[in-house]
Amino acid sequence: MLDENKVIVRIPGWSSLSSGVPLRLVHGGRAMVVVRLDDEVFALEDRCSHQDVPLSQGEVDSGHRTIECWKHGSRFSLDDGAPSGLPATRPVPTYSASVEGDEIVIVLPASD
Ligand code: FES
């Protein structure tokens, strides 16, 4: 059954997405950072929870499965968005992401 509270976004190009390189995507005014780690894909809101800066400009630590905010260095889990260091104390929203064929499929809430 179709969930009216969800929006499914399909992005082509999975095979050309480099592992560990963050990709910024904007859909319907919502900015996301998409990260591939080998055969896994993650999607988070592209905004640090400390200040309004894009996480997509930070670096991915594939071993710890985190992305680091370039401004003050907080790291956020790619799995659940939880921060692992100050100054950020709140998690970053994450979105369900998967791969179907050569498409990245992200499920977003319809609105905030
Ligand atoms: S703006 Fe990201 S940790 Fe401060």
Describe this structure in words.
- The radius of gyration is 13 Å and the shape is globular.
- The mean pLDDT is 94.
- The chain is built from no helices and 9 strands.
- The chain starts with 5 loop residues before the first strand and ends with a strand.
- It is 0% helix and 44% strand.
- With 112 residues, it is an all-beta fold.
- The strands form 2 sheets. A 6-stranded antiparallel beta sheet has the order 1-9-8-4-3-2, with no helix packed on it. Strands 5-6-7 form a 3-stranded antiparallel beta sheet, with no helix packed on it.
- FE2/S2 (inorganic) cluster binds next to loops.
Number of helices: 0
Shape: globular
Query: Taking strands numbered 1, 2, ... along the chain, how are they ordered across the largest sheet?
Result: 1-9-8-4-3-2
Bound molecules: FE2/S2 (inorganic) cluster
Uncertain runs are none
> What's the CATH first level?
Mainly Beta
Overview features:
Rieske Iron-sulfur Protein, 112 residues, binds FE2/S2 (inorganic) cluster, 9 strands, mainly beta, three-stranded antiparallel beta sheet
What is the secondary structure topology, with strand pairs?
Blueprint lengths: L5 E7 L10 E5 L2 E8 L2 E6 L13 E3 L4 E3 L6 E3 L16 E7 L2 E7 L3
Antiparallel strand pairs: 1-9, 2-3, 3-4, 4-8, 5-6, 6-7, 8-9
Bound molecules: FE2/S2 (inorganic) cluster.
Short structural summary:
It contains no helices and 9 strands. It is an all-beta fold and 112 residues long. The strands form 2 sheets. It has a 6-stranded antiparallel sheet, with no helix packed on it.
